[in-house]
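$ ./design --mode recover --in tokens.txt
reading tokens...
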């Protein structure tokens, strides 16, 4: 019988899901003595609008291979949900069909690395105060690009983000404060307690997960991980990053497939989160912050200029090249879809220029990117400039009609 259950909720991510299950088969869990641990994978499809027969067959084939590998006809299952009730509801459905003592929650757009699951298991078993174990996240196969740790949403966080829209100084101060936190997480070589987890992948004990109520199904999309983080902290346990457990996460492939649904559900979830944990004050804060960031007459006061010096790299299907004002012993490149850099990936480098390697560039999508480089040579981060880049390459494929901006 399966000792560990891997739960995946799919939405328009069939190809990525098949890839995830294939990597899972190659890098399954082991017991402390090194022997293979019986496990299963339960995939719930949340009524995906896209139903490509060939890609669905890939998922079914990988799940069947897992059944054969495990000698268990229940080791790989695809459950077709008759509604898109959100990530939380899909995960709770997958949990109801699971059998393992340990539960590994996973997104479909991930690649399992060797030793990932076992390292999370050893860490969780060794520390009774650990609520869940999470890996270090990377957005490329070469493990060069660090994913940003999530920031736990608080009233102060909501006000800080809204007010930053009116002040370039406040924006820069908040971004640098986030950067200092990210650097600590990215550089950690020992288990590190985090204020919040990411729902993309974590390991939890089944009984403990049930004791804190599992996923709250009132969240249609996003903020369910923030909600779970609060419940874990209130239970007296920790959210702990295991530094030698490494995960490749291609980030929000499901959400990008249906942006209108993603953003509408995100707004609903955000309102419900603040109402649940902060009551009337949370509702009033959300209303006030929404007014501040969306009021049309105040739009001219929300034009926060980018951090100087500013370089526009234009539109291109080729890799961006950032030429720095000086050579650095060590720097970090922040990469974001938002000029404020409140959520950004980080890539370390050295020298007087930076461009992503081929493996990293294959993870770029067709979007407007902003880069910011900080010199870390003397300890305290020093901003060297901001770059804008309109990418006309999508997942390694250059789009037709892309014009080069000289």
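writing sequence...
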């Amino acid at each position: 019988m399966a000792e560990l259950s891997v739960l995946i909720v799919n939405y328009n991510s069939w190809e990525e899901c098949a890839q995830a299950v294939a990597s899972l088969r190659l890098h399954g869990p082991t017991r402390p003595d090194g022997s293979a641990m019986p496990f299963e994978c339960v995939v719930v499809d949340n009524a995906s609008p896209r139903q490509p027969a060939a890609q669905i067959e890939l998922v079914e084939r990988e799940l069947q291979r897992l059944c054969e590998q495990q000698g268990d006809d229940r080791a790989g299952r695809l459950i077709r949900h008759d509604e898109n009730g959100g990530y939380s509801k899909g995960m709770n459905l997958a949990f109801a069909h699971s059998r393992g003592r340990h539960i590994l929650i996973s997104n479909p757009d991930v690649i399992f690395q060797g030793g990932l699951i076992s390292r999370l298991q050893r860490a969780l078993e060794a520390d009774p105060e650990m609520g869940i174990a999470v890996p270090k996240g990377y957005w490329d196969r070469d493990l060069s690009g660090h994913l940003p740790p999530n920031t736990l949403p608080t009233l102060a966080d909501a006000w800080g983000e809204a007010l930053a829209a009116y002040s370039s100084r406040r924006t820069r101060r908040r971004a640098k404060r986030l950067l200092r936190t990210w650097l600590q997480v990215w550089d950690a070589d020992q288990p590190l307690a985090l204020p919040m987890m990411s729902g993309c992948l974590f390991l939890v004990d089944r009984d403990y997960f049930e004791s804190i109520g599992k996923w709250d199904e009132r969240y249609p999309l996003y903020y369910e991980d923030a909600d779970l983080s609060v419940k874990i902290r209130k239970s007296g346990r920790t959210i702990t990053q295991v530094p030698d457990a490494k995960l490749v996460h291609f980030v929000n492939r499901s959400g990008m497939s249906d942006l209108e649904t993603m953003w509408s559900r995100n707004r609903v979830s955000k309102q419900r989160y603040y109402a649940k944990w902060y009551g009337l004050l949370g509702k009033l804060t959300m209303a006030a912050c929404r007014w501040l960031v969306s009021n049309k007459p105040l739009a001219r006061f929300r034009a926060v200029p980018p951090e100087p010096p500013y370089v526009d790299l234009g539109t291109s299907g080729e890799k961006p090249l950032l030429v720095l004002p000086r050579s650095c012993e060590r720097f970090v490149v922040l990469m974001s879809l938002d000029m404020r850099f409140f959520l950004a990936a980080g890539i370390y480098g050295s020298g007087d220029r930076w461009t992503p390697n081929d493996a990293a560039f294959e993870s770029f999508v067709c979007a407007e990117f902003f880069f910011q480089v900080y010199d870390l040579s003397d300890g305290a981060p020093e901003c060297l400039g901001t770059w804008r880049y309109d990418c006309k390459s999508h997942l390694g494929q250059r789009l037709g009609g892309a014009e080069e901006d000289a």
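exit 0
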